[in-house]
Specification:
The chain is mainly alpha-helical. Helices cover 76% and strands 0% of the residues. The termini are close together. Keywords: Membrane, Transmembrane, Transmembrane helix.
Length: 235
């Protein structure tokens, strides 16, 4: 279990935190000729070594990096504007399958350092509701992006992104500490602040876009927190 948690943490950090948007665009434009693709793979290998902290297991990060390169290369080769959204989630699913297969095959051959599994689990869950959730939500609802949006000078830079991250972190903490009433309070508070935006908007698509994003945000946070609670008792 510990190996899976370590590799999962390294994967999500490498894909969602230590991969600048400029790298993503360069990979999409230049595909396999992009040096950013190979920098990205080196980041994953380095993070895997860092989280495992056992150089006698040198082959595991190399397997992770090699399979990551193959999956990303296939994605970039097949990707176009029509299938981009679906390939994003297929790509992530394949990376996760590889990690779980590695953890399953190697579990009997590795002596783990005595680190609490629960700590890794809590930290992984908290990170999942930040950048990974933001990017996933943006990808999911990209097809619904309305033509009429709030002008840049009417909103703080990236304010929506950070508001979403904070609300999901709060929901996550409330649920793993068994304080569900806090989730209800947060939803009520969010509804009050959003009500004026929705009533003043003359664009129905914008209103629906905001509601879909909000519901997805809360749904992902609740789902991750419930998953963490279930796995915590299974450890």
């Amino acid at each position: 279990m510990l190996l899976a948690l370590q590799l999962l943490f390294a994967h999500f950090l490498g894909d969602f935190l230590f991969q600048p948007y400029s790298w993503v665009k360069d990979k999409e434009r230049r595909k396999l000729a992009s040096p950013k693709l190979y920098f990205h793979i080196l980041v994953h290998i380095g993070l895997s070594y860092l989280f495992m902290w056992d150089f006698s297991l040198w082959y595991i990060p190399l397997i992770v990096g090699g399979t990551h390169l193959m999956i990303d290369a296939a994605k970039l080769t097949l990707q176009n504007e029509r299938n981009k959204r679906y390939l994003f989630f297929i790509d992530q699913a394949l990376h996760l399958i590889v990690i779980f297969v590695i953890a399953f095959v190697c579990k009997g051959n590795i002596e783990f350092i005595d680190i609490p599994n629960e700590l890794w689990l809590y930290l992984l869950g908290a990170f999942l509701v930040t950048n990974p959730a933001s990017i996933s939500i943006k990808t999911l609802i990209s097809v619904y992006t309305p033509k009429t949006e709030i002008e840049e000078d009417e909103s703080l830079n990236n304010a929506g992104k950070y508001i979403g991250i904070l609300e999901r972190l709060l929901v996550y903490v409330f649920i793993i500490t068994q304080h569900w009433e806090g989730v209800g309070f947060l939803i009520a508070a969010k509804s009050i602040f959003r009500f004026s935006d929705l009533t003043q908007s003359k664009d129905r698509k914008l209103t629906e876009y905001i509601l879909i994003g909000t519901l997805l945000s809360f749904g992902i946070a609740i789902g991750v927190a419930l998953m963490v609670n279930v796995l915590r008792y299974a450890l």
